[in-house]
Structure formats: C-alpha cells, structure tokens
User: What shape does this take?
Amino acid sequence: MNRSDAIKSIAAQASQGELTFPTNLDAALKIQRTLDDPDCHIETAAKLVLTEPLLAARTVAIANSVAYNRSGDQITNVRTAVMRLGFRTMQSLAASLVVRQFSSKITDPALRAKAAKLWEHTAHVAALAHVIARRVTHLDPETAMFAAIVHEVGGFYLLSRAEQFPGLLDSDPDDWVDNGEADIGRAVLQKLAVPDAVMSAVESLWYGFLALPPETLGDTLLLANDLAPVASPLHQRAGATSKESASTIDYAVGEGTMQSILEESADEVKSLTSALLA
Assistant: This one.
C-alpha cells in the first residue's frame, strides 16, 4: 500500500471515529480528565501524578524550571510541585503524557527515532510558545503551552500506525495537508476533547500564515514553530519562514523588541525545554 492509499484508509477510519489508541493511553487520559474536574483536590491530583513516574518526574522538573521557580527554591516532592504549578499547567503536562503514549508501542528503530525527534521539536515549540504568549502576544501562557504540546498529535498518531501501513511515511514530508493528514490530526484532537480555540490555533499551522507582529494564539504557535531549533521530522509547514530568517525577524514589542525578548528569555526557554524532555 502506498502512502496516499494508507493516508486515505486511516483518514476514512478517523472520520468514522475509528481511532486506534494504545491501551496504556487510558491511564494518561484518566489523569487528564481528573485534572479537568474543577472539584479535583490537590491530594487527589498528587496521588494520580505519582502513578505515572514519567509525569511525576516531569512535574518536579517543570516546577524547578526558570519559568516557574523565580525564587530559586528547589522542590523535591510531587505534591509541592503540583501546588506551585497549578492545575492549568498540570493539564498541559498530562497532555504531554498522552501525546508521548502514542509512540510507546513503536518497535521499529527508525520510527522510534522519528517519534523522539518529533517530541524534541514539540518541547521546543511549547517552551517558546509559553514565552511568546507571556511576553509578546499577551495571551494565557498555559493555553499556549498546551496548544503547542498537542500541535503534533496527528503526527504521533500516524507514527503509531506506521508499522501497520508500510509506505505511510515514504514520500515527501512537505505535503502534510494534501492527502488527509490534517483530517486525521483534527479527528485525534477531537477525540482527546481539545477545546475549539486550541483546535483553531493548531489548524493555523496547517493552513495559516504568520502575522507580524503576532497577535492570536494561532500566531503564537506559528512563530514558536518557525523559531524552534529542531524541525518536525514529518513535515514542514506550508509557507513557513526558514529558521535562519525567522530568527532574525525583529520588531517593536512594548518598550523592547522581539529579539531582545528572546535573548532575555533564553534561559527560561532552555530550562522549560529541558524539563519537558526529561
């Protein structure tokens, strides 16, 4: 089966709600749903986080990152980390666990390498989106980070199905929206109950063009994606600015400039990226 036929087959299944998720995804989704509950208690959240070692380690790491630890006081336990981060950030971290679970059952070394590179790209975009939202577009940074974490979920889903569909990833990676991949990504996002505003922002990566200066959540994602030092191994956004030119774009932002903000936030971005990759 060639790539086009494979994509059409998966897209047809997705359009009917027939999505094949890893069995270990259930636990991650349970954590996400619990954190979404406004009545969830801090003790309940901490205990749930502790059931997933990867999430527990990442929670403590994020809480100790420059972005969330302005005082420099190091945290050594999950409960205190959850209190520092708050449930909004924890929802993003739970989403990161959900996204990474898609690649947990991949056995092919080449596909595993692609999945690892895709998560590295995602982590960079998430850290940049957090800073850009807070310092440039003045949007909720937690929403921006969440949108960035899920922006490649369709790609992770395709990687999780690639061993069942030989040839799925054989052709040019630049035609992401041409043969149904966007439909697959949209179906996965809907299955994961991603809010409409975040869905629209992610769709901007498939069809949109970056406005300068950036203003919307979609612009925030587009700019973070273009500035990320690690590109997606699956596709390039249509019309994307090259990394070299994106990194040299400068314009006034309040009393500073885009470049000055990126320079001032370099440690924050590095710390947050490292914590997400931990």
